[in-house]
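Notebook entry, structure prediction.
Reason for the run: the old model in the group folder had no record of what sequence produced it. Starting over properly, with the input documented here first.
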Amino acid sequence: MKFEKKLLKDHQVQLTVNFDQETFEHYKIQAARSISSRSKVSGFRPGKAPLDVVKRIYGEGYLNDEALELLVNEKYPLLLKEAEIEPAAAGKLEKVEKLNPPELVFVVPLEPSIELGKYQEIQKKYELPQVEDKEIDEVIHNLQLNYATAEKVEREAQKGDLVNFKLTAIVKNPEKDESNELLKDSPYQMIIGEKQREEFPYEGFDKELLGLKAGDKKELSHKYTKDSTFEKLQGKEVNFSIETLDVKELKLPDVNDDFVKSISGLNTVEMLKTSIKNQLAYTKNTDYEEKYYNELIDEIIKISKLSYPPVLLEDESEQVLHDFEHNLTHQNMDLETFLKLNKMEKDDFIEKEIKPVAKQQLEHSLVLEQITKAEKIELKQEELEQVYRQTMYEYQTRDDFNKIKRELSPKKLANSILMQAASRLMNRQVLDRIKQLANGESKEKKENSKEEKKEAAEGKNSQKQDKQTEPEVKGKEKKTTKEPKSQEKEIKKNAES
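New structure, fully documented this time:
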């Protein structure tokens, strides 16, 4: 077996391999045996039909394909070893240049190569957002709205009223093959003056309802900005027709202890405010941390050199798509329906929506893994056990836990949960580390450590002088500390127990 090795631009290696005819003939004989053992050949016991008989019955092409498969399965691992290649994933037989004797071309994806930039020098302040009183008041106000009573009124709509109406929307100058009708007598309701997260059909539309009463109609147009959150309407002008169905006055309940007791398991307004504050803080902190770490890792990626084969991005894209499809099931929807509703082709959706997410996830993962090695981060047994218990609890509270238990043996399930716990803990520790570096905490610790060492050295010198006047104590044993076991052994031990 002779081969030529050529590095490709996409972090793969091309191996052109030549085998002699004698080797290929050997695999043809094996192929004939394999074929005749699977398929009956008249006059011969299974696996005993001669090569020429099998070739005559099944054809030379079929025999060669079988022989080639046997050759590749046996020789490919040896080829990787001789070529000193650590593949990131399974290689591919790209081309059969010739067959007798065989000349084969393989393409093998290489392990990712990550050269970190000076990530220790990146500065990015970590400041958790505070929950303001007005945010708590807004949540309480929304609770009041949820429990408000609505009474029909015959007057014109004013701020705070609930208006039910039909809405028709027509796009002016639609693009080719695009329908100009967005909405046709679609029922809507809106509280005038109440801000929504994403106001539809556009911000401030509720003001158009002021002064309308049941039976009134109104025509208006609106031009969407080029950066509108409604992407399909960016830069377009739309004509709207409103038909008012009714106007209702909302009567909000008073916020007191009785109200709190009626809507929750809490007893006082203060308890409700504390609960809301905690929930808001958790949500804000979670959102802030996700944004903070994503931006910080993106900055590290900008100053680093990353190289990885296409197959890693393909695998990550498949996983992201799978997760997306799984999330759609919670909305009683499949991917095909989603794509139809959004007028998208699957390939375009994967290219524009899935791949960018997959690329970010993959590169973040590769960079964090490299920083873990650079910072020599190791798991502590106590922390791992704690996260393992937490992960196990999360599994036990899942809806599909019984199904998972049926599919995996207790040992495999425990091992799977342990690996997830270890990954989660390692991820948390490396994120904490880059946060410390970005906030200058590491420098502060270093300076404090220098001061402590200086003080300790001064103290030692003073003790040394005192000890010169003390008698020597013989037979005093040195205190030794036991070396901790390696993280890998500990994880393996836990998985097997």
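Summary: The domain at 2-111 is CATH 3.30.70.1050 (Alpha-Beta Plaits).
The old model has been moved to the deprecated folder.
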